[in-house]
Amino acid sequence: MSYRKTMSNSSPLRKPSASSKSPRPRAAEASPADTLHRVLRLANKLMAPFSTYLEHRYKISLNEFRLLMLIGRHPNSASHELAEMTGVNPMSVSRAVAALQKHGRIAVERDPGNKRRKTLILTDEGQRLYGLMRPQTDKVATYLVSALAGQEVDMLNQYLDTLVDTLEATDDSGNSRFLEFTRPDGDDEPTA
């Protein structure tokens, strides 16, 4: 079944015209840098609805939005768990958590089963905002895969999982293989 059928009649999928497409090398000619460029371009394009419709209206940053939506889907998560789920560094998560708390959108509670663990929950205001923004997020997700058949979506998810696993792999000492591989030549110490 095609995901095109899940889209409303008011917003049909339109393929870009040949003149609107950016030049792309054929798959056999694409370099790893071409692939990286495509992934980065995709990520940037996916943020357009957020910056156009949500950011200013709800006075929320991208990281705050991502965390709010994740807490809505995974209630009672801890900050470090959200950092792992999003791939956002812990300091950025910490800043977003502080901003969401400041605006009364989330609360931090001690886990009754583990007093050292603090969980994040949506407040009434956070629930309200989550309810307002969730349909927009679902529309973005639906549109993203609208030109793919179900089997292609499954394959895309497998590729994405493989790429994430590759980036998250560690060596025997627990060091990131990705950061070690991408370390500039002659740089023995990681920078802060």
From TrEMBL:
Molecular function GO labels: DNA binding; DNA-binding transcription factor activity
Keyword DNA-binding belongs to the record: yes
Record-linked Gene3D superfamilies: Winged helix-like DNA-binding domain superfamily/Winged helix DNA-binding domain (1.10.10.10)
Pfam family, one: MarR
Sequence intervals crossing the membrane: none
Keywords in alphabetical order: DNA-binding, Transcription, Transcription regulation
Domain of life where this protein originates: Bacteria
Region feature (Disordered): 1-33
Biased composition regions of type Low complexity, renumbered to the chain: 8-22
Keyword DNA-binding part of the UniProt annotation: yes
Protein name: MarR family transcriptional regulator
